[in-house]
Amino acid sequence: MRKAAFLGLSVAVLLIGCNVPNMPTTIVPAVRSQGAVYGGQQPVTDATIQLYAVGTSGFGSAATPLISAPVTTSDGSGTVNSNANAGNANNTLPAGNFTLNFTNAYACPSASTLVYLTSTGGNPGLTAGTNNSAIVMLAPLGQCGSLSSSTYVVVNELTTAGAVENLASFLSASGSIGSPSDSVSLQAISNAFAAVNKMVNISTGLALNGFPKLSTLANAMVQCVNSTGPTSSSCATLFADATPSGGTTPTTVLGALLNVALNPTLNGTAIYNLSTPNAPFQPASTGAPAVWNITTSGAVSSACGYGAGGNDVSGTVSYSGTQTGRIYLALNNTSGCDVGTEGTSIAAPGAFTIHGVPPGTYTLQAFMDTQGYGNTNAINPTGSASVTVSNPNVTGANVTLIDPGTITITSAPSLRAIGPYNGGAVVQLFHGVTNTNGIETATSYTLQWSTSSSFSPIAGSKIFPATGSGLQVWFVNGLSNSTAYYFRVYATSGGTAQSPYSTTFGPVTIGAATSGSAVSGSIGFAGTATGPMYAGFYNQDNYTAAPFVESIASPASLQSYAVNVTNSSSAVYIPVAIIDQNNDGFLDAGDITNVNFQGGPIAITGPIANQNLTLPSGNVTANVVTQVIQSGGTTRYGLYFNLSFLAKQPVAVTLLNSYNTDGANIDNGPLDIANCAVPNVNCGEGSNGFQIYFNLNSTAPTPGDTYLLNVTYSDGTSGIVAVQVTNVLTAFATNLAPQTGTSTTPTFTWTDPVCGACGGYTYQVYLSGSSGGIWSVPGYGNGLAPGTTSLTWAADPTNPPNTPSVSSLTLGST
């Protein structure tokens, strides 16, 4: 806040209000906040003023009122106490002004508590006795401890528009601002409060330079504020224009602004036309905006050219068949994207809208999830359509779902790896059975085991559902220790009761591993375990290596574990734990796990203790991963957003605006993220859930940057999830060679970065020529292990079949 400006305004109000020949030479030692309420340039009298501390029990949670005595704005009559301000000579102030000049008028919960001022109702200069209940306006003030005798506040349409634009994620339709009390959410709301002051001068009620669209939006509210109330023609028109399709009609100015902030492509021309020719807030836009997004310091774009202000794409999904299930949609850019794309889901055939779509040519793809695991299957009804996005609010993007023919399976599934533990084994299926488009054709798999390689007799079997074309992990208990078992699996579909058997895997001797190094620690988790825990490590860069797991029948936090792991300086070992809450032997929503939110890689070359792990809690696992790319002498940054199931199954995810001071922001939300299961959505190897990548170019994120994701769940509930950047790599590999040379099958070398405690990184090596990519390593997993300093031509240590697209390089070529 600019105290000099505040002090000048504060003194002016004191002189007008007090009218005492000899002013006191010292200010009364009480925290005091004062200001005025305006509708455009018209003072609003008899408006109720309240100071609130933000809620701390969730997004939009109830705020705490801090003023116990009633305060209203002056009616300008000069008559003491003719309005509700008992004990306060407020009406000696100019009309629309107010003062909170009380001793102990309010107490800050803490100096850092965020507070805001609201003004509700009042008379905007109309017939005496008028009370316009559509007037709900506010001004964010920041930390409570920053308020002083020099603080002066103007509450008007502009301060309200600036507040709603930046605080929409924390704001309820009733006007309550709140967030959860965890550190990530508190940082996010603090950033949003600070962003308001980048747009609006709270002490003058005017927009700062560079925000004509905000002035335009505020101007559109003026006529309703200066009317008799919600039933006036001005308010009725505003509320109709600010009602999204299928949404709730607002009853206040604040509610109208909130609808616009959450639906930035909403009726741009109609809302723009509500502004009068001589509107009070200038400079304003000279034409109707395509979108109402108002950015401060956004730096991001996607590989598909995403810029400030995305478009809405809406249409209808039609289906005449008999199957049921949630319908997932995605817009796949025909020019390709790095990771993820825009999309949404609907509960049944009908209307849909996808927010935040950049201009481009897309294939709209849709499928009905008849299995219920959020993954596509060949039995699903599917459909597609072409969509071109060049203007906001694309309509008529219609798609029809068609049932597939009978699905038959002629090939066998394959087992990837099996890791024994005491009394059982963890079994990894390699990519299931898929068609030529990579879509899973099996509806279930039957795993069999036997002590004989001929499977005569079969010792046992278990059926597992088909949950996606990526890696599937199963747990089999009740096996005899020290006994060698053979395993095989077959697939089932609507047209195939039993596919060919997989290649027999085994023998696998049941029991805990005894060789290698002992690795131990404890695992913490929230809630109560209702099923067994499986804890250990797996090598993310060896697609045939079995995991090392301990089974714990009745775990409790902090649960100790100990496993023996094969020593390796090149392996990228990832700690993992799963509490199979429903004891069904596979990973699904409701289980407690870090599988979708894994810890950093570690090297295991000897015994290690205190490898402790805390499992995530909540409805979903979500994170943001930073990427740093050095190429051609430049450095650029990126953000990967990842979200997947935990206690609940997410079915739709929307990325909201962010307000980080370093500029690493999503300023063009809301943006709907597609489910990775929709065909041709490019996500990571074996990924499920929701992913999207943004290019920050030269803007570097910093630890503490926060982002918000609005998540809808399969049970119909929804909520906001906050994620935070925890680390950004600042030291990099050097001495990359060969830059030039004569070897056509070279060995690539580099020097490890020296960066202290930055072990949570991996290498990715990419070689390209003038015609495109030649070789990308790793071929499986997320990267080479920290400490790796060379790579030999044609030998991918993570996936031996992954070789360059050419047998050797060409002399003389760059």
What's the quick description here?
With 814 residues, this protein is mainly beta. The protein contains seven helices and 45 strands.
Q: What does the largest sheet look like?
A: 5 strands, antiparallel
* Overall radius of gyration: 31 Å
Q: Share of helix among residues? A: 10-25%
Average pLDDT = 86
Put simply, the count of helices is 7
Uncertain stretches of 5 or more adjacent residues: 1-32
| Structural class by SSE content | mainly beta
The overall strand count is 45
Cα(first) to Cα(last) distance is 56 Å
Note down, in words, how this protein is organized:
- With 814 residues, the protein is mainly β.
- It contains seven helices and 45 strands.
- Strands 3, 4, 5, 7 and 8 form a five-stranded antiparallel β-sheet that branches.
- A hairpin with a 2-residue loop joins strand 34 and strand 35.
- Helix 2 runs antiparallel to helix 3, helix 2 packs parallel to helix 6 (253-262) and helix 4 (212-225) packs across helix 5 (233-241).
- It starts with a helix and ends in a 22-residue tail after the last strand.
- Residues 1-32 have low confidence and may be disordered.
